[in-house]
Design goal:
mainly alpha; 18 helices; globular
Length: 378
């Protein structure tokens, strides 16, 4: 056992160094990674708000003008500006970062996201009683987390908030869940569990926080942005939208694209996934397993799920380990092995890497369902 612990410590040190070096190499290299990052679109939104033009936040021409001023003519955006697809309340909250340079804003935003994710993972490890340093290190050095950091993605902070909402008491849980609306696609399944489980105070608190965010965006951005946001989302949902690559997604839509299947596979797979989640919720009242099912299923079901969305799934794996009982050692071994295999991502094609993540998420969701059925019989 002592030798295994030493090997695990050695592995974590090695992968931490690899994650830091890879991230630094990409961000400081000739790739203009920050200029092509998701954060760049947040910075554009911040500049639009600061310019007093929030009413045109979701107009392509408005975004393109500010983006061109910010980063110049980017060859990879030959079809047009990389669109800002996040909610107007995110634009309201990041508006102060628009006062800084793109690089400084990226650093501040990403470090805040990583800090929130680290706190969320730390709190989960305390709740499940696992080794306190193991959970945060495995989450922070996972390949999807590194990708999210390189992209400056809001997924980092939002996944951390959802982890906090699992480990916190009623009102703080609702506060964290409400703030997770900064990326609305990640919270619905977990929110549904809260409601179905009768956690109405937490759900009510989340609704109040969401309403406050909507009011903030109406004041800071503009009411027009709130009106335009739903229509904008519909406009970027199609496969031919700029920046949308279904074959690189980790959901059923991506699986169908990679297999050359039609929407029937998406429908059947989504129904299977929802069935597994509902079965897990019915078989057990465990908050940990309920959250694990929601976290693992969300990227599979979301219409637009890129590889960095798997950060949420990694937190789900942490919860599965906590609920495993005497099987914990085996599942820790499986989780570390998966962690290592996923680091093939940098050398695989984007499609292959997405397929690997898709399979891993589905496999762990099956583990959740099995553990839930086992706990229901005991």
């Amino acid at each position: 056992m002592r030798r295994l612990r030493l090997l695990l410590v050695g592995y974590l040190l090695l992968v931490t160094v690899a994650a830091i070096l890879l991230t630094d190499g990409i961000l400081s290299g000739p790739y203009r990674a920050i200029e092509r990052s998701d954060y760049m679109t947040y910075h554009v939104a911040a500049r639009i708000v600061l310019n007093g033009d929030g009413a045109c936040l979701y107009e392509a021409g408005c975004q393109a003008a500010v983006q061109r001023e910010l980063i110049g003519e980017e060859p990879s955006f030959a079809r047009g500006a990389l669109p800002y697809n996040s909610p107007p309340w995110l634009a309201a909250l990041v508006a102060p970062l628009g006062l800084f340079s793109l690089q400084l804003g990226f650093a501040i935003f990403t470090l805040i996201g990583l800090a929130i994710l680290a706190v969320g993972a730390w709190r989960l490890t305390l709740v499940i009683g696992a080794a306190r340093i193991l959970g945060p290190l495995l989450i922070l050095t996972a390949w999807p987390t590194v990708m999210a950091a390189i992209r400056g993605q809001s997924t980092l902070g939002v996944a951390g908030l959802l982890a906090i909402s699992v480990s916190a008491s009623t009102y703080p849980s609702g506060l964290a869940m409400g703030l997770s609306a900064l990326k609305p696609t990640l919270a619905p399944l977990w929110a549904a569990w809260q409601v179905l489980g009768g956690h109405f105070r937490a759900a009510g608190t989340a609704v109040v926080v969401l309403l406050a965010l909507i009011a903030l965006s109406a004041v800071v951005v503009s009411p027009q942005a709130l009106i335009d946001y739903p229509a904008h989302l519909l406009g970027v949902a199609g496969a031919d939208a700029l920046g949308v690559h279904p074959a690189e997604m980790i959901n059923w839509r991506g699986a169908a694209e990679r297999l050359g299947a039609d929407e029937r596979l998406v429908i059947a797979g989504s129904a299977l996934t929802l069935g597994l989640v509902l079965a897990a919720w019915l078989w057990t009242s465990s908050r940990q397993l309920g959250a694990a099912a929601a976290f693992l299923a969300t990227p599979l079901l979301t219409l637009h799920a890129n590889q960095h969305e798997a950060v949420l799934s990694m937190l789900g794996v942490l919860l599965v380990i906590g609920a495993a009982g005497e099987l914990r050692t085996w599942l820790v071994t499986a989780a570390v092995a998966m962690h290592a295999v996923l680091w093939l991502g940098p050398v695989l094609t984007s499609e292959a890497s997405a397929g690997l993540l898709f399979g891993a998420q589905l496999a762990w969701l099956l583990v959740v369902a099995a553990l839930a059925a086992r706990s229901g019989r005991s």
